[in-house]
Amino acid sequence: MAIITVGYVLTNVAYFTTISAEELLLSNAVAVTFSERLLGNFSLAVPIFVALSCFGSMNGGVFAVSRLFYVASREGHLPEILSMIHVHKHTPLPAVIVLVPLFIPALFSFTCLFMVVLSLYSDPFSTGIGFLITLTGVPAYYLFIVWDKKPKWFRQLSDRITRTLQIILEVVPEDSKEL
What we know:
Blueprint: H1 2-18, H2 21-26, H3 30-39, H4 45-74, E1 84-86, H5 103-122, H6 124-134, H7 137-146, H8 152-169, E2 171-173
Antiparallel strand pairs: 1-2
Helix pairs in contact: 5-6
């Protein structure tokens, strides 16, 4: 964390020593103005480096998401099957819920954001009702996570589903001797 903070501070110091306060305020993109002043024609490479940085960040996010589901399942916040490890690959295979090309989740996220903003703008009342409907997830949270004394039939059903998925996905609990 300290290295990142030092990096940001040094970047800002470089901006302020190269660009005047007026130019800084008038600039649409400070990094581009900085690179034009410092690098001349090579400043065209800055957007490419920014895009590569974003790509690297997304790449790290892709690896982190499956581990997020894996740990949430281990803590009891998601179904137990997501905390299992593949027998041969030793990875949390069930936690990688869906494998699709990267542009599909990006397009999906952009579309969802667009729809939410458009809904808030065009009909805030109905959007509020939708938000209230979303809050119905709170009882589901208490039913599946908080409530410890579930009926026997519910636990048996959950165990059967977990065992079936273990066979299909070839996974075992992480502390299993079968790894």
